[in-house]
Amino acid sequence: MEFQRKDLVAIEPLAPEEIVHILDTAEGFLEVSRREVKKVPALRGKTVVNGFFEPSTRTRLSFEIAEKRLSADTVNFSASTSSVKKGETLLDTVRNIEAMVPDAVVIRHGAAGAAEFVARRLGCSVINAGDGRHEHPTQALLDLFTIRRRKGRIEGLTVTIVGDIANSRVARSNIHALTKLGARVRVCGPPTMLPPQVERMGVEAYTRVAEAVAGADVVMALRIQKERLGRAVFPSDREYARVFGLNSRVLEGAAADAIVMHPGPMNRGVEITSELADGPRSVILEQVEHGVAVRMAVLYLLLGGGRSEWTS
Amino acid sequence: MAETYRRVLLNADAVRRSLARMALEILERNRGTQGLALVGIVRRGDRLARRIADHIRKAEGVEVPVGRLDITLYRDDLGRKGAPPPLGPTDIPFSLDDRMVVLVDDVLYTGRTVRAALDALVDLGRPRAIQLAVLVDRGHRELPIQPDYVGHAEPTRPEEEIEVRVGDDPSDDAVFLVEPGWDEGEV
Amino acid sequence: MDFVIRGGHVIDPASGLDAPRDVAVAEGKILAVEPSIDPGSAPVVDASGLWVLPGLIDIHVHLREPGQEYKEDVVSGTRAAAAGGFTAVAAMPNTRPVNDNAEVTRYILEKAHRGGVCRVYPVGAISKGLRGEDLAEIGELAEAGCVAVTDDGHPVSSSLLMRRALEYASAFGVVVVSHCEDLDLARGGAMNEGLASAYLGLPAIPAEAEEIQVARDLLLARRTGGRLHLAHLSTRGSMKLLRYAKRMGLPVTGETAPHYFTLTEDAVRSFDTHAKMNPPLREIADVEAVQKALRRGVVDAVATDHAPHAPDEKEVEFEAAPNGVIGLETSLGVTLRLVHHGLLDRVRAVAALTWGPARALGLPGGTLAPGGPADITLVDPEARWTVDPAAFFSKARNCPFAGMDLRGRAVGTIVGGRTVYWNGRILAENLETAERLPT
Q: Any contact of A with C, at least 3 CB pairs below 8 A?
């Protein structure tokens, strides 16, 4: 298996073998991350621009750590410190980044399609760190990596995702990745949070959390965006917690060895109880550790080969 | 049509004798097994390290710790050509600190792999000293690196290749010299 | 006689004609359409192998003048129209300033008189400033030359205002053109709500956002008896509602656009802003329903909703991109695609580009009946070409059909007996300076 892509913009276009190859590569980087000296010289001399046009703490930190562990030079370009706030268009921003001649750009942006927009216009590699409600591919990869390490496989597992599916890039990327690798995916939430025709994405839709969780090997809670509260999507976080929140009682119906995941940051007491988040089923902190290994693998696979030709 | 000539440099017996001699030399130079560890470079060096450890056990009755090292992330040609090379396993289940580490590889050629391995080793710990054991030294060094233990020295031409076979069964071990066919290599 | 077009195949849906005919033109009018006409000393246009059609009419065009001439203006827009085979266009009122008063209407007509190479029929606003609050001076607009009123681009959200517009406009014989969209339901949407939006995570507009207002406006047309025309219909439900309304005998017409019977929501799967318009591209079931509605004559007209934008306005994030695509130079070819694919017979196709739109807005032309204006389009139905927006006469390039292989295109456009476009070239500065025939 050779990884020949210039960019990682979305999970949707990836072949199952490509996903597996990224996960396999991440195993080696997990070992590196556990060494005393966690740094390898693989990307020495490479410049990576982290363009975060939307607030993010953990994803940005995870990418930065991954880049530094690979010895890449990193430049951070965030909305609060850049000229973006002054009305500069994404195209102008792209041209400015291009002038820095980076080897890769990691981009987080509020607009769906922003990563693809940038990838098409830059000769260097582009990694999507979340574009609007579209995709968040490295999150899905780290989730799969965590599941595979815990369960030894993806194929044949039942994975339940609970929350605002329609507005979640994490859910979308996970649905693609999990179904490609043969997992059975259930999504659950109030109908206002399920995309219309969601079954056509190859998943089963549930509106009752107990049914969705029954027999599941993996249960993933999504963050509830409180800013959407009241906009006719859900009436209150109290009701959400009661009807759709994950707690240890709901998890009783899951497989005996079911694991509980959350992409973070959590609203404790809303989509997940603290008892569950901090309990023995929870792999939430492993997800964070694995995020670095997976992002190292993605950076290595995109930048460790021949330098892409500058087209512009 | 390109024809390729393959000549046996070492057969299974010769490989075994070479490795046994190298094991004895390692013991002699280091005055026994105290603090000794072997680290083989993935993918054939780690198998050879196992073979040497077996000879040491036969000679001394002592199990020397053996680790394996993947040097991919330390290669000096990353990001320069082709697809990124796949990662191999690095597994050194003991501390390198204050060890006498014998680095084992199949073929010593330009010295670039050993350079990468030295960098990787010092990132993993602080050995007291590092020695180098290779089954075949074929010359053409591009870096100032010399082996401490050599199974077989073979002057080669750059266009030739050394093919080392280290199988599951030592009776299949062999070293070949592969000459380029008519259409390949220099005139 | 000015000239005779000989040896062509005439398709004139209004008279049911689909046969080889010669066409004689005298004093800017159709003189005769006969199996064989002796030209005498008059010049002859050899139309062998060509279709001779009534001049095509596009009743939904944004010429952008006044105010946004960087996107398009009367000169470039009418040239694009003539090159696409159109002899007349209806110009939407969302200009800057809005065409909500006679002054702006006269300005547009003056620009068309000086630099337009096809007929331009201004359409006025329903409400002042397109704000959806107070009626515009529809009487004066009609007097100044507006053939219809619409708040296109901004649906009339107030049912009361829509009712009043239908009532009031009927006094002046102007049609009320409705852009049907329930803004509350469509709020923030950037594409159709369906499987593609589920994949892309873009805010989406359900088909019902259009259909709810189609239903409302049909009911108001029934209540008021006012002449209603439904703009850019895109959904299966809208087609069903229009069919139902026509069966009830309501005074209503409807149009669709080439992209709605050609492209599905999948065209935006790559976040291509050139496929972003409002209403958005729908699903295959809708595309097939629109084709069926054309076949049955339920939908009266193909209109392009030609909406030019500057390239850098479209080269932004999908959600930030303005709605709209251009269509004047592809409409005929894309419509004939249905004919070549056996999905639409050619008389229906020609009707939707000529007689249908003429009737919908009550315009002259749309037929080759003797005595009418000599607005004629010559079409090579077999000409194969590939859509290349860089070669357009329009200032804009936001075309969703770029790269599409088409069969059939206009080779000559004659307005009032004068040839404005011939074989890839615009021949005149305006309608008055145009020569009768290419020299």
A: yes
